[in-house]
Amino acid sequence: MTAPDQNDPAVRKGQEDRLRATWAPPMGLFLRWTDTNNNRVGNWYTATAFGFMLFAGLLALLIRAQLAVPDNDLVSASTFNQLFTLHGSMMMFLFAVPMFEAVSILILPQLLGARDLPFPRLSAFGYWSFLIGGVFVSGSIFFDAAPDGGWFMYPPLTTDPALSGLGADIWMLGLSFIEVSSIAAAVELIVGVLKCRPPGMRLNLMPLYAWYILVVAVMILFAFPPLIAGDILFEMERLLDWPFFDATRGGDPLLWQHLFWIFGHPEVYIVFLPSIAIFAMVVPTFARRHVVGYPWIVLAAVGTGFLSFGLWVHHMFATGLPNISLGFFSAASEAVAIPTAVQIFVFIATIWAGRVVWSTPMLYAAGSLAIFVIGGLTGVMVAVAPFDWQAHDTYFIVAHLHYVLIGGTVMPLFGGLYYYWPLVTGKKLSDRMGRTAFWMMFVGMNVTFLPMHWTGLMGMPRRVQTYQSSLGVDGLNLLSTVGAFLFAAGVAVLVADLFRSPWRPLARRNPWDAGTLEWTQKADSEDWGIRSVPLIESRYPIWDQPNFVRNIDEGRYFLPDAEEGRRESIITTVLDARPLQVIRLGGPSIKPMLAAVTLGGVFILTTYHLYWSALVSGVLALGVILWWLWTGTGEIPEKPEKPIGHGITVPLYASGPTAPGWWAMFITMTGDATAFASLIFGYFFFWTIHADFPPPPTPGLAGPGVFWPMMALGLILAGWALTILARETNARGGVGIARIALALGAAASIGGGLAALAGPWFSGLDPVLHVYPAIVWVLVIWVAAHAALSAIMQLYTLARSLFGRMDPVHDADVRNITVYQHFFALSAVITFPLIAFFPGVA
Amino acid sequence: MRSSSSVLTAAAGAGKTNVREQVECNGDPMTSDECARRTGGPNLERTLRLAALPVTLLLSGCAGVQSAMSPFGVEAAATARLTWVMVAGAVLISVAVAALVVRAVRAPEGSLSHSGGMSLILWAGAIGPTIILFGLLITALPMMRQLPVAPNDLTIAVGGEQFWWRVQYRPTGAPPVEDANLVRVPVGRTVRILLTSPDVIHSFWVPGLAGKVDMIPGRTNTLVVRATKAGTYRGQCTEFCGLAHAKMAFDVVAMEPRAFDAWLVQARTPTRLSSPAQAGALTPPLHPGPGLRRGTEGAAPSGQALYTSYGCAGCHAIRGAGGRIGPDLTLLPQRRSLAAATLPLNPATLAAFIRNPQSVKAGVLMPRFAEMSDAEARAIAAYLLEPK
């Protein structure tokens, strides 16, 4: 096969027509919503998260109106509690994290010169889950049923049915659903950064935004599962009265606080690092030079990610901890300021060394940095435990966290909006309105929150519906309210600017004269993304690589065509981005939406205790997901390989560690294992804290014995070994033996799951009596549920083999489920010896 | 406003009179004691001295009663000093960074070489902060230690409950004294405060005395404090605890040690023999009969009889007689406020609260007495405000 002549305009025209047809979005009133292209899904995602932010902002204005004067009764205490709970929860779960994921889905393919992310349908599924869960949670305020226990939902206030209503369930289940979609997006982004880079873009040539995405997505992967584990325990207590957080039955309210803040503190950095990432793109562009200290900033980002998992306890300084914990977590909390300072000085050094071109995005960057530095410094103050004992849960913290989050998330995001708007829409926003909005927000922000530091030290706690004049904070509060409305007016100006955008003329290509890959995109860009996938030799290829843009446009790099009419992108190696495979991407499909609707049904129906309907919805969700996988993944291509240009030919099919699907499974299971580890943490937490754990073996409290757990362990390990056997024999052509092994493996998994449940069942462990039986039950239910999934996977793989969708060469399915089996076997190896022998040892 | 000496008088001989002079404080009508308490007496001067901070100009004259920056305890004082040091440091660093940014923006291209940039990052970004933070940590670590406490030091057990405070003084070698919503501490003596909660998590915070400590079901936390200055102050719950979280505060009175000892003895001693225990009201009827409630034809029933007939003792105790669900009412006449330091205490507010607690403090667990007349409520209030 000879390479096409890219000098011939007719050849190029033919390629472009084929690409256009292949990537054409579905049309029609409904069908357009089945699109999965990152451009469209990313737009919906971003707009939705932005809408939730505006809504949560309105709630904040109500809060400020209520607190404008002392002893006010504009809103009742009940409404007020819903307002602040929803404001915090929405800003965190429906704005900050999803916004990062939305923007990343939108621009990551452009940053990496990929046509799309590796799993476009997963992005669509994530979006629809987010929309459904978000509307469910935020809409509750209109029915006076919004959560009212604070965004941290501390039990026992929130687990006692007498003290908390439906709102607590809406929070737990609605947001758990969104957490699942967040993890889905994180998996997508990690695989995207690791496997979808253009040829030549070694890790050390990656744009900084991609580095930050990688760090943040990995953080999501480890931070959200502890919260999900906590949510499980929490709902078990609310719905079934299992006493995980009930001190009268051996539980402990502090376990929730640990699980929540193991999530909650990394969460702060999860929402802050993406903004630094935007700076890291904006600052070099307007300093007209490479970033100074690329290794420094990458190391600092990674270091922040690591450290952020070691300081959750600083949210619990007032809970009466031993001195050693105080000292350790105080030190760690202060230490995290160091990588943050490194990142800030990287920008200062870059600006200093470069020639600054002043612009609206740069104004936002500078302003946010100023705000953020103040937030960071007060952060160091509250890391000092004795000061925190005064400041904790007062308006000082409200001030601190808003300096951090407005300076570190909201304002940089607005700056990013001005920066990337031309990339997404082809049009520039108004500089004049952008600057007006900036100054209104900057002044408004400071007028609102600077006085709050003092308000807090003067004795005003957080989350109070009203306050007395005797505190002497009337004037400060009024000032804060005035500032909040000024800030809101600034946001309104910005929104008006966005709405005027469609009437503006197209901007020129690369309007900021930036050097990074994404700006090769034309103002009237097409859905196919990049015209040809370039070979990258620099961090700023537009600046450094000669004829870079022209070569891309003329299809002179890789994969300039869509000969087979299939949506394709290049998969490369993790470290040095050598081409490995051309991946066939999923096109428009209704299945992700259906999966989101049915899975959402499980969470929403459970909230209203409609368990049978929830079960039906769950079965439907499982069916849709299997249908989606069956038709959309592991497809055997019509030919083994294809040329991508420049004499390089790569396979169309990959399995094992070469394939993105294997990575997705591995990464997902890492998150799953983290949730499991959190449950194990719970078991040992109760043991270390309480002398009566495990309690004396009386009826209902003794169990689960040794026999059944060991039986379960044996069966699960047998299932694991049989799956490995299936993988190996299948690869060697022994399809028949592999099929038998898979069938037996499924039987072993089911048997293992049942044996797991049999232990506590036959020994009569009563989970309502005490936390010990409850945690044992949760562990075996966790393993049993995974056993059921394991059996489904093994039977699915068996069916794939029987229907000719898997053969000795095309064996991605069995390789992927083997990854699952490794993690599953590990959880069994930990769980069963623990529950069988630990009571005797303890 | 009253002078500081009258505050001390009020602190020592609390609640001798029930009808107090009405004054204006910050626009709120309240008793003069109340206003004096709000001003914090001598703290006023201290607060004004802090006027160096521009933001203080916004404060009304009535401030400092619940302020971490107007300390009256050794821990709070040390923390306040640390706060000023850190604020000064933070302002200094902010200004320095801002100046550096301005300089960086104005610098012509190439005025900082690549290696110069790398050293800037190393020194200003990594090494500088490390040294500063290490210094801060070393300074703060000793402050994390609790004050030393001796076995004979006074113990006060405080329980946080939705939405009030159960207070029990446990002096060594003497029977305990039960009170609510008011914590008295002797000046200059170390006091151990045991913190618990039977329902949800609360947090005990007297900013002028020490930092906050949570009250967690199933745990007992200890806070050791030493007041340094007599006066009347305020504390508040700082862990969100439900509907009336904003109205869960308490008064704090720091007393001269001798006055405190005298008060403890006096509080333990019944002032009259006709207290409910002696009057045989130990077992109140579950359903007060109409006869009892109306009393003898023609003569209005006494407040004490109404207290009994409405079943108040089902939840409240006076001199050890009655339930323990609600606040102990023995020392109510000596309290400084009502409904967990959210209302001024006088016969009118007390009567209104008794009839319909929800109307003045939404979320309070005490039921409403719809059938109780205003006169009955006033009679009960009058009875409750008599020394027991």
What does this protein look like?
The complex is a heterodimer of chains A (842) and B (388). Chain A is mainly alpha-helical. Chain A has a domain at 681-841: Cytochrome c oxidase, subunit III, four-helix bundle (Four Helix Bundle (Hemerythrin (Met), subunit A), Up-down Bundle), CATH 1.20.120.80. Chain A has 24 helices and 4 strands. In chain A, strands 1-2 form a two-stranded antiparallel ribbon. In chain A, β1 (568-572) and β2 form a beta hairpin. In chain A, α2 (38-66) packs antiparallel against α15 and α3 (77-112) crosses α7. The longest helix of chain A is centred in the first third of the chain and has 36 residues, at 77-112. Chain A starts with 8 loop residues before the first helix and ends with a helix. By secondary structure, chain B is an alpha+beta fold. Chain B folds into 4 domains: 4-58, no CATH class; 111-145; 154-268, Cupredoxins -  blue copper proteins (Immunoglobulin-like); 290-384, Sandwich (Immunoglobulin-like). Chain B is 34% helix and 19% strand. Chain B is built from 11 helices and 16 strands. Chain B has a 5-stranded mixed β-sheet with strand order 5-4-3-7-10. In chain B, α9 (347-355) packs across α11. Chains A and B meet through α3, α9, α10, α11 and α12 of A and α4, α5 and β11 of B. Chain A: Pathway: Energy metabolism; oxidative phosphorylation. Chain A: The chain crosses the membrane at residues 44-69, 89-112, 124-143, 170-194, 206-228, 268-287, 294-314, 326-351, 363-385, 397-421, 437-456, 476-499, 611-630, 662-686, 706-725, 737-762, 774-798, 819-838. Chain A: Its EC number is 7.1.1.9.
Helix content of chain B: 25-40%
Q: Alpha-carbon distance between the termini of chain A? A: 71 Å
Secondary-structure element string of chain A: HHHHHHHHHHHHHHHHHEEHHEEHHHHH
CATH architecture of the largest domain in chain B: Sandwich
Q: Give a quick account of the main beta sheet of chain B: strands, pairing sense, barrel closure.
A: 5 strands, mixed
Put simply, the count of helices of chain B is 11
Q: Provide a count of the helices of chain A.
A: 24
Overall geometric form of chain B: elongated
How much is the average pLDDT of chain B?
Answer: 82
What's the gyration radius of chain B in Å?
Answer: 26 Å
Largest beta sheet of chain A: what is the strand line-up?
A: 1-2
Average of per-residue pLDDT values of chain A: 95
CATH architecture heading of the domain at 681-841 in chain A: Up-down Bundle
